[in-house]
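Quick one: structure tokens for this chain, please?
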Amino acid sequence: MKLSNNIEIPQIGVGTWTLRGVTARDNVRLALEAGFRHVDTAQSYENEAEVGQGILDSGVNRHGIFLTTKVATNVMRGGRPSVQQSIDDSLRRLKTDYVDLLLIHWPVKDCVKDTWKVMEENVRRGKVRSIGVSNFNRHHLDDLFTYAEIRPVINQIEVHPLMTQEENIAYNHQMGIQVVAWGPFGQGDIDVVGHPLLQSLAKKYGKTASQIVLRWIIQRDLITIPRAKPNHFAENLDVMTFTLTDEDMAAVSALNQNLRSNVLNDPETFPW
């Protein structure tokens, strides 16, 4: 899939939230060996060093990998010097001289503009190829547009069948912003894949309920980053080999309850 700056991003990647230590390192290596070329991490995940080592251990050429990290909320509150230091630290931990995508992790009130300006400067310096946001609602984007010299190419938001985000996604696409769906299975906090409709569709297509969810996301022209679990790598990559009917796509979308996996994950009221 192509971003608005003409950089290509694989439509399905691997997330690393909750992965730590050797597990993070090995899972990233195994994901790349399995064929994934899109890896997502964040400063707040505290695993950038292990992700970077996993990339090195895989032997895959760094220039063939799309690597994302995110500026943490506590860093944003420290002001511009804090943000710049965090970017330099992320590059060092990731063992790379650039990242393909740098995101603002959460829309921290009164801190977005300063953070964005530092991010723009790092694009100019070649340390960052693309910049974007995460967990932004429409009004957050509209405010950003008033001063952004480089427009965001990505908005990474929670999307799954019980949280379809149709209006938010439509607005992002209207503005030329691609959307990355995080938490496609509900982060384990809510039972998305256990829904009877998804189980029924899994039997119909000869797939798993998780594959139905990922295919539903892919067919909405979204990008997704299910967590890097080696026993699911082949299964996740296989979602590019089949297609849901329009009727089944609509049926999955009709499951929407605007239900977040965690009530604290609200961009308007998040506590961190």
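The chain has a mean pLDDT of 97.
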